[in-house]
């Protein structure tokens, strides 16, 4: 114990410099030995630091997420392995779909009814027709339609035979009345059930809408049938199918043919 009194100078004991450094180093080594751990302070996101268990942790400060990796990398899947697994799954799915398609095809082949129906649909889609004739008609033109049916437009099986053998489609073309489902539309529907020779358009009938009706007819006919020629006539015209066929056959090799009268570009 050192006591300093007034007027007296107490003696000082100073440790040697080398001894002090030695004691500091020994304390540091002892601390390292007993704690047995090291710390790395992450100063940025994604930088690994070592935990007391020896594993690594990755810190994402933006999302407050700590991802741990305790050093067991045997269960991890590399990027290439993941790609291989994904490809295997895709191949398995394709094989399953292929087997299902084959089974469905075999079922159709074994069922005569289904097979015949599919063949008919395929033949319709692949069929190339010679001409499609649209007969422009109105709700009030029942007598004209009956006259056409009685003269140059074949009916029932004869019309079907004309389509199959000659590739000639003939239909009366009409839209809908301004009152949807009204008496005029019902009359056409009843007539259609008897004869089955109408092509109904998404068009409202009207005298001032004849040009629009013609455009709609051609667009609809092209979407329904793949033909070489598309013809439009009125229901008061009687057509000689043989003469018309000969006239059109002369132009088969031409890429684009328009025969008729076009007014004002319509």
UniProtKB/TrEMBL annotation:
**UniProt cross-references to InterPro entries, sorted A to Z:** DUF4094, Glyco_trans_31
UniProt-recorded Gene Ontology molecular function terms: galactosyltransferase activity
EC annotation from Swiss-Prot or TrEMBL: 2.4.1.-
Q: Which UniProt keywords apply?
A: Glycosyltransferase, Golgi apparatus, Manganese, Membrane, Signal-anchor, Transferase, Transmembrane, Transmembrane helix
Q: Which cofactor does it need?
A: Mn(2+)
Instruction: List each copy of the DUF4094 domain by range.
Output: 18-103
Pathway(s) served: Protein modification; protein glycosylation
| Broad class of the protein's primary localization | Golgi
Quote the cellular component terms of the Gene Ontology held in the record. Golgi membrane
Please tell me which top-level EC class this enzyme sits in: transferase
Q: Which domain of life is it from?
A: Eukaryota
- Which cellular compartments is it found in? Golgi apparatus membrane
The membrane-topology field of this record reads: Single-pass type II membrane protein
User: Which Pfam families is this protein grouped with?
Assistant: DUF4094, Galactosyl_T
PANTHER family cross-referenced by the UniProt entry? BETA-1,3-GALACTOSYLTRANSFERASE 1-RELATED, BETA-1,3-N-ACETYLGLUCOSAMINYLTRANSFERASE
Per the record, the similarity remark reads: Belongs to the glycosyltransferase 31 family.
Protein name per Swiss-Prot or TrEMBL = Hexosyltransferase
List the taxonomic lineage. Answer: Eukaryota, Viridiplantae, Streptophyta, Embryophyta, Tracheophyta
